[in-house]
Amino acid sequence: MNKNKSHALYSKQLQITGHQGPIYALDQDERYIYSASSDKFVARWHKTTGEQDQFAIRCTQAPFSLLVLPDHNQLLIGLSDGSLHLIDTAQKVELKYLKAHQSAVFALAANPCLDQRYSADAEGNVLVWDATWNLLLTLPLACGKIRQIAVAPDGTYFVVAGADGYYRKIETTFFNETQQVYAHYEGCTALCLLPNGGILSAGKDAYIRRWSAAGEKQNAFPAHLGTIYQLVQLPNGYYVSASRDKTLKIWSLETDEIGQRLDLQMAGHRHSINALIALADGFVSAGDDKRMIVWHASNAKTP
Predict the structure, then answer these.
(1) Cα 275 to Cα 24: distance, rounded to the nearest angstrom
(2) DSSP label at 124?
(3) How far apart are alpha carbons 98 and 233 in whole angstroms?
């Protein structure tokens, strides 16, 4: 595998600083990048310039997860004490305070097809909410910390990554578990749903594994030297992985071959990389070094 092709797929476009602690989560709308940090602030930044907007939410506890709902001008923040804060991003005021979780909220997701929202915590509970934030259902999956909820494009199911090493597929009509796959020793930490219905998973074992829609393993390879915290599909035939080992790696979506490694030598991160979001022409990464980096796609051919 070639670590860095002569023609770089991605290059650093912008570095954004301002937080005083590690950055745990990112999300976005059309104009802004939203970030959550251990400094107990949620802030937002202009995508094009990286400048901070006059929008900053001071939280009582560390925010671990974010969910932006652009069509509703809403931002949901999940905190380390299990509380959820719903913010109006236009008026910059709190709309709701929700205290249904008893432990840290690590994962948030929206299902626009069914107007549902999902939140998940460190004890393995998934809560289902309607569009007006009425609690519809609690799913006690007993799988340990849930780090991610990935929702199918058609809204018919979602998949959760559990600390017990399994990923679980839940259908969204009656919320029955339709699939349970043991994916990673010591914990499944990240998921990426593929257009063909397949799944990419990553875990504390530093492996990436590819699964068919039926849950059959199709590929497995050691991808990093530490826990992989995020997997995100990019719009040009690649996906990116972010790890505790301080590196980002770009992989072919078709072959799983490595296309590029982004590390400190490539003006990357100095510490663990915790969060990723995809942009139209690149992606944003953030981590324990208190920085966000915007990576821009070069005019590279798709794999």
Answers:
(1) 6
(2) S
(3) 31
Rounded Cα–Cα distance for residues 172 and 202 (Å) = 24
Q: What is the torsion angle, in degrees rounded to the nearest 10, for the CA atoms of residue 246, residue 32, residue 148 and residue 217?
A: -70
- Give the sign of the dihedral formed by CA 241, CA 244, CA 245, CA 247: positive
How much is the pLDDT for 4? 44
Which domains, from first to last, does the chain contain? 10-297 (2.130.10.10)
- Looking up tokens 């349970």 gives 180
pLDDT (tens digit, 9 = 90+) per residue, 92-113? 999 999 999 999 999 999 999 9
216 CB contacts (<8 Å, ≥6 apart)? none
Rounded Cα–Cα distance for residues 135 and 129 (Å): 5
Residue bearing tokens 């397949």: 198
Looking up tokens 């078709």 gives 254
Residues 6 or more apart in contact with residue 131 via CB below 8 angstroms? 72, 115, 116, 117
Based on C-alpha coordinates, what's the Rg of the chain?
18
pLDDT score recorded for residue 6: 45
144 Cβ partners below 8 Å, 6+ apart? Answer: 122, 123, 124, 162, 163, 164, 187
Say which residue the tokens 């549902």 belong to. Answer: 116
Judge whether 289 and 35 are in contact, CB under 8 Å.
no
Which of 230, 157, 231 is CA-nearest to residue 197?
157
What totals of helices (H) and strands (E) does the chain contain, helices first? Answer: 0, 28
Query: CA 79 to CA 50: how far, in whole Å?
Result: 25
Distance separating alpha carbons of residues 189 and 118, to the nearest angstrom? 17
User: Which pLDDT band holds residue 298 (cuts at 50, 70, 90)?
Assistant: confident
